């Protein structure tokens, strides 16, 4: 029988808590975004007509209400996890979402940019050069969005982050793209359900805060 008080047992407990935190935060994010994901799948299957335009308009509204604040909430929950080691991640993520929902002005701006980029990505599919440019623009927008999400719980602004840490922000965007690309390239759709967003937020946090907390080290070595 496994002794959780042993060194090995304590390491397993730390790993289990770490996985539980990632999954809990990500599940909240996924459930909030489920209507958006369904609507996006529908939009991608439609021809470029009035129905597609109406669907993308609805997607934009849903991005404002669900995706943008939920993503900010995931970043906030990861911050709470990493700094306080709180165990109530379900409640923490939910409360962070409700708080982020109130910031409707930046939410609208981000949603409009994201929706416009998705439309442009589809429009440029027949032109390789324009399509590549659109992809590069998407990486830049994602870099800025990650910076904005991170800046929400730090005493700094997006502009200051871009000026001071452009490569760290770019690395966080690459990590985010990689984690979500796994879902489509390897057909591991369950990843987006379990840890894609929470792990992307954790990667961004660790890029800016590489030193692991002393409390984590103590838990792993005791």
Automatic annotation (TrEMBL):
The chain crosses the membrane at residues 12-32, 52-75, 96-120, 126-146, 158-180, 186-205. This is Integral membrane protein. The keyword Glycoprotein does not apply. Keywords: Membrane, Transmembrane, Transmembrane helix.
């Amino acid at each position: 029988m496994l002794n959780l008080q042993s060194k090995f047992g304590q390491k397993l407990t730390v790993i289990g808590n770490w996985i539980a935190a990632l999954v809990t935060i990500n599940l909240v994010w996924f459930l909030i975004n489920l209507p958006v994901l369904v609507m996006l799948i529908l939009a991608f299957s439609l021809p470029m007509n009035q129905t597609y335009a109406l669907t993308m308009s609805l997607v934009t509204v849903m991005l404002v209400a669900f995706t943008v604040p939920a993503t900010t909430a995931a970043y906030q929950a990861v911050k709470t996890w990493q700094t306080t080691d709180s165990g109530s991640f379900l409640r923490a993520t939910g409360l962070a979402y409700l708080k982020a929902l109130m910031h409707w002005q930046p939410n609208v701006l981000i949603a409009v940019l994201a929706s416009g980029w998705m439309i442009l990505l589809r429009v440029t599919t027949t032109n390789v050069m324009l399509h590549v440019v659109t992809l590069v623009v998407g990486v830049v927008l994602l870099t800025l969005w990650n910076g904005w999400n991170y800046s929400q719980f730090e005493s700094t602004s997006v502009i200051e982050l871009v000026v001071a840490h452009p490569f760290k922000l770019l690395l966080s965007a690459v990590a985010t793209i990689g984690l979500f690309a796994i879902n489509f390239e390897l057909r591991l759709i369950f990843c987006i359900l379990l840890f894609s967003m929470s792990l992307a937020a954790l990667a961004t946090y660790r890029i800016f805060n590489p030193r692991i907390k002393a409390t984590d080290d103590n838990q792993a070595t005791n």
